Structures are given as structure tokens and as C-alpha cells.
Amino acid sequence: MGEYFKELFGGTKSLVVGLGITIKHMVKPVVTLQYPHESLKMSARFRGHIELLGDEETGASKCVVCGMCQRACPSGCIALAGEKPEGAKKKVLTSYVLDFTKCSLCGQCVESCKFGAITFSKEYNLAGPRKEAYIFDLKKRLEERSG
Ligand code: SF4
Ligand code: SF4
């Protein structure tokens, strides 16, 4: 009889402890996300691949085609081009391609740009079976973002 009550007590205790843990976790703030339907908000210092920045009013690229970022990149990831339209004083960007397969996210390009024309994106969930998926046409991406 004593053994019976001992087992009953042990079982009830373990049930109460288990329920206590369940209830504690039910009221705790949720720390997981319904990926891929939800995305994490990355911190300000997070470095995704570089991205061109557009003018706040016109949306056009801030890049003046000086080539500093291209020269600063130790991995040769950046290929850019520009042209001077007839009658214009400045060059305009015609192409800006990033080979993200070679990028070490060192930040030399962003630091070298004195025009605030490039920054790190917040993209963290890139995935693809082919290398070509990581060759980014940043000018096109900027145009798509600007609408
Ligand atoms: S972060 Fe570094 S490696 Fe990547 S594109 Fe810029 S300079 Fe090149
Ligand atoms: S350093 Fe800045 S302005 Fe110069 S080419 Fe690179 S992105 Fe354009």
C-alpha cells in the first residue's frame, strides 16, 4: 500500500512539474518566427551584400561613377560603368554589377564611397543552387526598389 501511494505521489508531482514548465513557456514572449512568411529585423550593423542608394527625391542613383569602390575592393567584386550624356556636366551610372560569390563583406567599398551611394543591405536569407544567382545587377535592383 505504501508503495502505491509513493508511486501516486511521484506521478502527480512529475505531472505538476511538467505542467508548470508548459505554462511558464506559454506565457513567455515568443522568440521564433514563422519563416519564411516572416523575416527577422536585422540590426543596424548587420552586413548583407552591398546595395546602391538612390536620391531621396528622384530615386536616381547617387553614384557619380568615380570608381573608388571598384578600386578599393580587394576581391574584384565590382564592375561598373557610366557615360556622360550630351550636354551633361556629370557622368551617369549605366551599369553596376556585384559578384557576391567573391565578396568577403570587408566594407572597403562602402568606406571608400564619399557620396553615400552604397550601403550594406539587410538581406540575410539568400539561397540558390547556381553561382549566377549571386551576380547582382545593383542598378536594376535600385530601379525596381524606386518603382
Ligand atoms: S564588401 Fe569588400 S569584398 Fe565585398 S564588394 Fe565591398 S570591397 Fe569588395
Ligand atoms: S565610390 Fe560611390 S560614387 Fe564612386 S563609383 Fe562607387 S558607388 Fe559610385
Characterization of the model:
This protein is α+β, with helices and mostly antiparallel strands and 147 residues long. The protein has 2 domains: 1-31; 50-146, Alpha-Beta Plaits (2-Layer Sandwich). It contains 4 helices and 5 strands; from the N terminus they run αβαββαββα. The chain has a 3-stranded antiparallel β-sheet with strand order 2-3-5. Strands 1-4 form a two-stranded antiparallel sheet. The longest helix is centred in the first third of the chain and has 26 residues, at 2-27. It is rod-shaped and about 100 Å long. It starts with a helix and ends with a helix. 14% of the residues are buried. The structure holds iron/sulfur cluster (2 copies). The site of one iron/sulfur cluster has 13 residues, from α2.
